[in-house]
Specification:
Blueprint: H1 2-22, H2 25-31, H3 36-39, H4 41-64, H5 67-84, H6 90-105, H7 107-116, H8 124-132, H9 134-149, H10 158-164, H11 167-176, H12 182-197, H13 201-238, H14 241-248, H15 253-281, H16 283-296, H17 298-303, H18 309-334, H19 340-354, H20 358-366, E1 370-376, E2 379-384, H21 386-407, H22 430-442, H23 455-468
Antiparallel strand pairs: 1-2
Helix pairs in contact: 1-7, 1-8, 1-9, 1-11, 4-5, 4-6, 4-7, 4-19, 5-6, 5-10, 5-11, 7-19, 8-15, 8-18, 9-15, 12-13, 12-22, 13-18, 13-19, 13-21, 15-16, 15-18, 16-18, 16-21, 20-21
Protein name: Sugar transporter family protein
GO biological process, one term: plasma membrane lactate transport
Membrane topology: Multi-pass membrane protein
Length: about 475
């Protein structure tokens, strides 16, 4: 539970630091003497390089443990967020955000694995929903702190980034006090024992990778396609929505802010509730049902032009993020055990990369549905029917997600322990696995990896003793 709290905080601050750019695009453009469109490349680069981070840090976490890759990841996080606040040129800004994308990409898979691996089965769904909705909470915090820190001092937008680099220091200290997950310690013990019988730990790890690719390549492809659909669902319903409220519905700044805040409250509620229900009704059924409800709510979400749309926004995001609340544990239960961090993180980030053009698709399509322009003080502003576009786009996405979820697999209540992993039997025999588990249980699960370094020698002596027993003379 302590580890879960830490990683909810991490997910929250991950989102906070990501949204610092999107909330200050105008100020950044003015500071770097460029356009807002150019500044948004800072957001695009983060999305593009997140997949690199998920691969690098995911493999490192599966090989060397969750703890130290996570700490290194957060150190980079601090340096790059702080460095962004000191950028003096547009080129420096882009370089910092590209590297920040690598650091950000490595966090999701590690956070999910560390927070959920050791949880009791009955708590998985609820905690998955809480973990995922740290992202929505991070957006709310970023909005609040942007109001309080941007342009309130002579440093303009910079204090928001400086402040954003602070909390990860506390997360690092917190993580230093926590051990590795029991599931990873158990798997590493098996690797060390198998090493004593054959080759190095790294070679054993590579053998596991070959087994995972051979047996699960189709599943990995499916997970990327599923995550593309889910990311299209979140970006398609959220990214252009404030623009629709301002440009099409003519909402003021305060009305837009209130609507966005209420929508995110709906997101946090939905993720928690649906995540919890998925533990009883299953991951796929929960996703399918909440997507059907979300599809039914698209009309009021995009066609109610008064401030009553706030209610529709709450319940639509309840559905969108309700489906998302199931995702962390669903990915964990589907992923091969040896590469759980890598698969969860990389499938999520590749899906994010595929969906990064969703707002561009909606904005470009929206220009095909012009409305009467808004004329204020003789200045004409073009308006477009973004509501119709969002409704059609999201309808297609919901159908895609429902079909893919229906056709896909599910491993509800899957055991994460190494003794339940069929893949590991390709690189270690039943006896090796059984002895490792027996020793860890005998020592209260406190056996370190070093204690198992001579496990093969112990087994050899035990076997030699058994072979000598028939030759002993009876007394």
């Amino acid at each position: 539970m302590i580890q879960l709290a830490e990683f909810v905080l991490l997910q929250t601050w991950d989102a906070f630091d990501f949204f610092t750019v999107s909330l200050t695009t105008t100020e950044l453009a003015e500071s770097f003497d460029t356009t807002v469109a150019n500044v948004t490349w800072g957001i695009t680069l983060v999305l593009m390089f997140r997949s690199v981070g998920s691969i690098l840090f995911g493999v490192a976490a599966d090989r060397y443990g969750r703890k130290w890759p996570f700490i290194i990841n957060n150190v980079l996080f601090i340096i790059l967020e702080l460095g962004t606040g000191f950028c003096q040129t547009y080129q420096q800004f882009l370089a910092c955000r590209a590297l920040f994308g690598i650091a950000m990409g490595g966090l999701y898979g590690n956070a999910a694995a560390t927070a959920l691996e050791d949880l009791p089965e009955e708590a998985r769904g609820l905690m998955s929903g809480i973990l995922q909705q740290g992202y929505a909470f991070g957006y709310l915090l970023a909005t609040a702190f942007a109001r309080g820190l941007v342009d309130t001092t002579s440093h303009g937008w910079r204090p928001l980034f400086w402040f954003g680099s602070g909390p990860p220091v506390l997360i690092i200290i917190y993580r230093l006090l926590l051990p590795e997950t029991h599931v990873h310690q158990q798997r590493e013990s098996v690797r060390r024992t198998a090493r004593a019988e054959s080759t190095s730990v790294s070679k054993t790890f590579l053998l596991e990778g070959k087994v995972a690719l051979k047996r699960h390549w189709l599943l990995l492809t499916y997970l990327v396609l599923l995550m593309a659909g889910f990311n299209f669902m979140s970006h398609g319903s959220q990214d252009l929505y404030p623009t629709m409220l301002k440009n099409q519905f003519l909402f003021g700044a305060n009305a837009v802010t209130v609507t966005q805040v209420v929508a995110n409250l709906g997101a946090m509620t939905g993720g928690t509730v649906v995540g919890y229900l998925s533990q009883s009704f299953g991951r796929r059924l929960s996703i399918i049902c909440i997507c059907v409800v979300g599809g039914a709510l698209l009309y009021p979400y995009t066609f109610v032009t008064t401030e009553r749309v706030i209610a529709a926004a709450f319940f639509e995001q309840f559905c969108v993020q309700g489906a998302w609340g199931v995702i962390p544990i669903h990915l964990m239960e589907l992923s091969p055990g040896a590469f759980r961090t890598f698969v969860v993180g990389t499938s999520y980030q590749l899906g994010n990369l595929v969906s990064s053009a969703s707002s561009t698709i909606e904005a470009t399509t929206g220009e095909r549905f012009p409305l009467s322009p808004l004329v204020v003080n003789g200045k004409s502003t073009p308006r477009y029917d973004y509501g119709k576009v969002i409704c059609i786009f999201m309808g297609c996405v919901y159908v895609y997600v429902i079909l893919l979820t229906f056709l896909g697999p599910e491993h509800l209540r899957r055991k994460f322990g190494v003794e339940h992993d069929a893949d590991v039997r390709e690189i270690a025999n039943e006896e090796t696995i059984g002895q490792v588990i027996h020793r860890r249980e005998r020592m209260g699960m406190g056996l370190s990896d070093e204690d198992l370094a001579d496990a093969a020698e112990v087994r050899r002596l035990e076997q030699a003793e058994k072979e000598q027993q028939p030759n002993r003379s009876p007394v």
